TrEMBL record, chain A:
Keyword Transport: yes
Function, in words: Part of the ABC transporter complex UgpBAEC involved in sn-glycerol-3-phosphate (G3P) import. Probably responsible for the translocation of the substrate across the membrane.
Biological process annotations from GO: transmembrane transport
Quaternary assembly: The complex is composed of two ATP-binding proteins (UgpC), two transmembrane proteins (UgpA and UgpE) and a solute-binding protein (UgpB).
Name of the protein this chain belongs to: sn-glycerol-3-phosphate transport system permease protein UgpE
Residues in ABC transmembrane type-1 domain copies: 71-262
Source lineage: Bacteria, Pseudomonadati, Pseudomonadota, Alphaproteobacteria, Hyphomicrobiales
TM region positions: 12-33, 75-97, 109-128, 140-162, 183-208, 244-262
Compartments, as annotated in UniProt: Cell inner membrane; Cell membrane
Family named by the database record: Belongs to the binding-protein-dependent transport system permease family.
Assigned keywords, A-Z: Cell inner membrane, Cell membrane, Membrane, Transmembrane, Transmembrane helix, Transport
Record carries keyword Glycosyltransferase: no
PROSITE patterns, A to Z: ABC_TM1
Species of the source: Devosia psychrophila
UniProtKB/TrEMBL annotation, chain B:
Residue ranges constituting the ABC transmembrane type-1 domain according to the UniProt record: 59-271
Lineage: Bacteria, Pseudomonadati, Pseudomonadota, Alphaproteobacteria, Hyphomicrobiales
InterPro entries: ABC_transporter_permease (IPR051393), MetI-like (IPR000515), MetI-like_sf (IPR035906)
Keyword Transmembrane helix: yes
Organism: Devosia psychrophila
PROSITE patterns per UniProt: ABC_TM1
Family: Belongs to the binding-protein-dependent transport system permease family.
Membrane topology: Multi-pass membrane protein
Family annotation (Gene3D superfamilies): MetI-like
The entry's keywords: Cell membrane, Membrane, Transmembrane, Transmembrane helix, Transport
Name used for this protein in its record: Raffinose/stachyose/melibiose transport system permease protein
Membrane spanning stretches: 12-32, 63-86, 93-113, 155-172, 193-216, 253-272
Compartments, as annotated in UniProt: Cell membrane
Length: 277, 281
């Protein structure tokens, strides 16, 4: 759709859009640029191009942030969370979308309410309870916390996918003698699989980036996530900003690459779960 | 039968959220260090908060934060979204670029701003100082710390709103836009009478979410300033966190959490109303 054609308007439009792009990209450019420089060069001028490219920043960052361990922790935590959210969320979304139970309205309202509950409302008893049960530094326990927090969002998003499936498909399968469980797993799930993929991507992004829960519940050196190990590196172990930015780039790069290739899914998913209901 | 499908979701939800939330409500009336037996304290925790200067400044900071985020990123998002609507080319490119800050981990965003922009030694601000510009690291001054932190969150956030608003704008019926054009509407008239009313539900929802999120803000404050200097950028969520895990005053932390929730609750009420209205349609 085009609203206006005049050349002046278009110039102003692109000028404004370019300012926006510059704003968004400038700090990211600083991140990338300085990850290639030595600490002295950064102090001299953070905007200057590197005189020699310091690839060793990346190897030092990898070692000092113990990424070979903490990346595995993050991958395990993220993977478990994705599986838990997708499995439990798709079952709930199906039942709520199809209004299979009388109290669907109450359950939906309750889940919506928990999406907006502040973490602090349940964090403290949860922490001391987990401490009592020996669940601090337990990756599975943390993935349960993520699942509880992200599920309502996932369910609301998946619900819209289930709503789009024609009822006749279900009815036909039931008449053919399929059980309810078969209808769900063999008929419904394959149809909504794009939705499940979208949910997996977004929940994966959230879990990968999460800070507050991870830093509170995973404290042991060999259990922290990549983001938390970056935080520790930049906070106490190092004041070499070349190394710190290299560590940042190592964490950000896989996410950005994934995002650029699958941007439509990311954006529609993040927008869909919070906007469409 | 179908009730069983909900069991995993609800079981996890109850154990992680509902039960601890109810315990938090109870704990708000107890004195507890997290280890020994809790002692009933009546309204003592709330009285202590009411007499605590830091609590009031944290609450004020949350309100300032809410006000900033109700205006600035929403205005930026709306402006950029309408510009995208006009632009015949490059929409996807700009959307992807604007969305990049949203997908970067808050801990990383915080450190990039801290070290590469605000820092007087390694950052852009230091470079500007060296070239004689009178800039100071905003995080180091009580008067500006909160705004320094808010700027980082703004950078991280406005692209999300832009993309959401753009998606909504594209769904404004074409006939309405055509009709307005035939009537000879200028761009601003088009905004005022066709586009903005067309996406009002989305704007309302985003404003409600902004209120909720503004009382939850934690990461950027915790990483950039720890609420300092001299508690000037403290918000309720960092205050509660500090009370629970540093001061081991879990009762007061719980009471603070209840205050946060109270603001969230009002916004949540409107959120559910708006959401369920849309669900009915």
């Amino acid at each position: 759709m085009r609203l206006v054609e005049s050349r002046t308007t278009l110039t102003i439009t692109y000028f404004v859009l370019a300012i926006g792009a510059f704003t968004a990209l400038f700090p990211i450019a600083l991140l990338v640029l300085n990850s290639l420089k030595s600490a002295q060069e950064i102090v001299l001028n953070p905007l200057a191009l590197p005189q020699t490219i310091r690839w060793d920043n990346f190897t030092r960052a990898w070692n000092d942030a113990r990424f070979s361990q903490t990346f595995v922790n993050s991958i395990v935590l993220t993977g478990m969370t994705i599986i838990l959210v997708c499995v439990t969320g798709s079952m709930s979304a199906y039942v709520l979308a199809r209004k299979k139970i009388k109290s669907w309205r109450l359950v939906t309202g309750y889940l919506l309410a928990t999406t907006t509950a502040p973490i602090q409302l349940f964090l403290f008893p949860l922490y001391f309870g987990f401490a009592k049960l020996g669940l601090i530094n337990n990756v599975f326990a943390v993935s349960l916390v993520y699942t509880a927090i992200y599920s309502p969002f996932a369910i609301m998003l998946l619900r819209t996918y289930f709503l789009a499936v024609p009822k006749e498909l279900e009815e036909a399968a039931l008449i053919d003698g399929a059980t309810h469980w078969q209808v769900f797993t063999k008929v419904m799930l394959p149809i909504v699989s794009p939705g499940i993929l979208t949910v997996a991507l977004i929940i994966g992004l959230y879990s990968w980036n999460e800070f507050l829960i991870a830093t509170t519940f995973l404290q042991q050196q060999d259990k922290v996530t990549a983001v938390v190990s970056f935080f520790l590196l930049s906070g106490q172990y190092s004041s070499d900003w070349g190394e710190i930015m290299a560590a940042a780039l190592i964490i950000v790069l896989p996410i950005v690459v994934l995002f650029v290739f699958l941007q439509r899914r990311f954006i529609e998913g993040m927008a869909g779960g919070s906007v469409k209901g | 039968m179908h009730r069983l499908y909900l069991v995993p979701t609800l079981a996890i939800n109850f154990v992680i959220i509902l039960v601890p939330a109810l315990l938090t409500i109870a704990l708000a009336f107890f004195r507890w260090d997290g280890i020994s037996a809790p002692v009933f304290n009546g309204l003592g925790n709330f009285q202590a908060l009411a007499g605590d200067r830091v609590f009031w400044s944290a609450l004020t900071n949350n309100l300032i934060w809410t006000a900033i985020f109700l205006v600035v990123p929403i205005a930026m998002g709306l402006l950029a979204a309408t510009m995208l609507l006009i632009a015949p080319r490059g929409r996807t490119f700009f959307q992807v670029v604007y969305f990049l800050p949203v997908i970067i981990a808050t801990a990383i965003t915080a450190r990039v701003w801290q070290g590469m922009i605000y820092s007087p030694v390694t950052g852009l601000f230091g470079l500007m100082q060296k070239s004689g510009l009178p800039v100071v690291n905003p995080l180091s001054l009580p008067t500006t710390a909160l705004f320094g932190v808010a700027t980082v969150d703004l950078w991280h956030w406005w692209g999300f709103l832009c993309v959401i608003f753009f998606a909504a704008l594209r769904q404004v019926p074409q006939e309405q836009i055509e009709a307005a054009r035939i009537e000879g509407a200028t761009f601003w008239q088009m905004m005022r009478y066709v586009l903005l009313p067309g996406i009002r539900p989305t704007i309302t929802l985003m404003m409600i979410m902004t209120v909720i999120w503004s009382f939850l803000v934690f990461d950027f404050v915790y990483i950039l300033t720890q609420g300092g200097p001299a508690f000037s950028s403290e918000v309720l969520s960092t205050l509660a966190y500090r009370k629970a895990f540093y001061d081991l005053n879990v009762g007061q932390a719980a009471a603070t959490a209840l205050v946060i929730s109270l603001f969230g609750l009002v916004a949540t009420y409107f959120y559910i109303r708006v959401q369920s209205q849309e669900g009915e349609q």
